[in-house]
């Protein structure tokens, strides 16, 4: 069989040519934009980069950011300045970021509560979480369920048994409404259908002293916050909130292994975020260089002192994780009737 080719008419030819011209007209700007974005990534940064953090000087998360800034400064060949703006639930730092450069020279260090808890705790939030483009998580920090060293509670199951027998009488503490320690315990209540009293302390040191002397039945704490009293023999760890045991405390069971609900998991984490709408090539470069910095052995060594774990993931997977965390905490906050308004 022989294929036959029919020459198009002049009218049809002109229509085809016009269509091709329109397609080319749309394609050229796209190609130009892609080239411009790639060029911007090659040239970026053109001046010092500022990382704005809501954490105070000397805190664990702030120390991580300073170490990462040193690594990024070597990679970028420009100063990377960490600017501390603590206070007001992190809103001072966020406002400074929102008023800053939109070209990637200003980056934001966010706590997990800013993305997954505060949107459900405030009716009128002074920022829109969609204004941020989280790049990668810097670390994950699981907690330990702590109680007094001489406490009668041998495991999490003992605490839950008493909570069921005496609804509303057991107490636990944290340093504010809506922080991971508070919400993590509220999640435990939700998963076990128990009710306990939340006591707020002004200082974290007072909180764990309250656990040690029996003012509080228990509290969640990290290696950094509760570790000193644990090492001094004044409090004990009876469970960890990770899905696996912590490598620094292999003898401490998970909450599930200690008599708590299966699947219970609570962690704190922070992230570096860029402004919304940053050219993809620049955002990709920041992600790539941040991954390189996080892979430095010195980072792992520093994390071990804080009890932090690396949180390897992709930007897309991290975005899905943030959405799932937001949904989880929305339900917990609603059940606990927690509010910061």
Features:
341 residues, D-Maltodextrin-Binding Protein, domain 2, 2 domains, three-stranded antiparallel beta sheet, 10 strands, BUG, receptor, TAT_signal
Question: How do the helices and strands line up, and which of them pair or pack?
Answer:
Elements: H1 10-43, E1 49-53, H2 60-76, E2 80-84, H3 91-98, E3 106-111, H4 112-116, H5 118-121, E4 132-142, E5 144-148, H6 156-165, E6 171-174, H7 180-192, E7 197-200, H8 204-212, E8 219-221, H9 223-231, E9 235-240, E10 267-275, H10 280-294, H11 297-306, H12 315-336
Parallel strand pairs: 1-2, 1-3, 6-7
Antiparallel strand pairs: 3-10, 4-10, 5-8, 5-9
Helix pairs in contact: 1-10, 2-10, 2-11, 7-12
Signal peptide: 1-32
Protein name: Tripartite tricarboxylate transporter substrate binding protein
Keywords: Plasmid, Receptor, Signal
Order of SSEs:
HEHEHEHHEEHEHEHEHEEHHH
Q: How far do the termini sit from each other?
A: 80 Å
- Per the CATH scheme, the topology name of the largest domain is D-Maltodextrin-Binding Protein, domain 2
Radius of gyration: 26 Å
CATH architecture field of the largest domain = 3-Layer(aba) Sandwich
Instruction: Tell me the name of the CATH class of the largest domain.
Output: Alpha Beta
In short:
By secondary structure, the chain is α/β, with parallel strands linked by helices.
Describe the structure.
This protein is α/β, with parallel strands linked by helices and 341 residues long. The chain has two domains: 49-140 and 268-336, D-Maltodextrin-Binding Protein, domain 2 (3-Layer(aba) Sandwich); 144-240, 3-Layer(aba) Sandwich (D-Maltodextrin-Binding Protein, domain 2), CATH 3.40.190. The protein is built from twelve helices and ten strands. The strands form three sheets. The protein has a five-stranded mixed β-sheet, sandwiched between helices. A three-stranded antiparallel β-sheet has the order 8-5-9. The model is unreliable at 1-6 (pLDDT under 50). Belongs to the UPF0065 (bug) family. Keywords: Plasmid, Receptor, Signal. Residues 1-32 form the signal peptide.
